[in-house]
Amino acid sequence: MIDLKAIDELARRLNDLVPPGLNDARADLEQNFRAALQSGLNKLNLVTREEFDVQRSVLLRTREKIDALERAIEVLEARLNAPSSNSKN
User: Fold this and answer.
1) Which of 14, 40, 64, 70 is most buried when burial is the number of CB atoms within 10 A of its CB?
2) Considering the entire predicted model, what is its pTM?
3) Range of the domain at 77
4) Is the four-CA dihedral 79, 83, 85, 87 of positive or negative sign?
């Protein structure tokens, strides 16, 4: 979800740049600016900060599990490759 306050503020700022001769069209232009900004941002397929933080947390937990599994594999490989003290020559 896009922050509508930020879009409204940007639309207002764009509207402030409209030349004084177009004062009658300001409200309509601001509405058009707002709609164009929302449409453009929606096409970007952005996520909220909350969604981003949740996915980041999931990714970090996954990375920790992968690191632990890699360490366990290294230990098991070391055991397999170590000369056996039980073997007879």
Assistant:
1) 14
2) 0.49
3) 47-82
4) positive
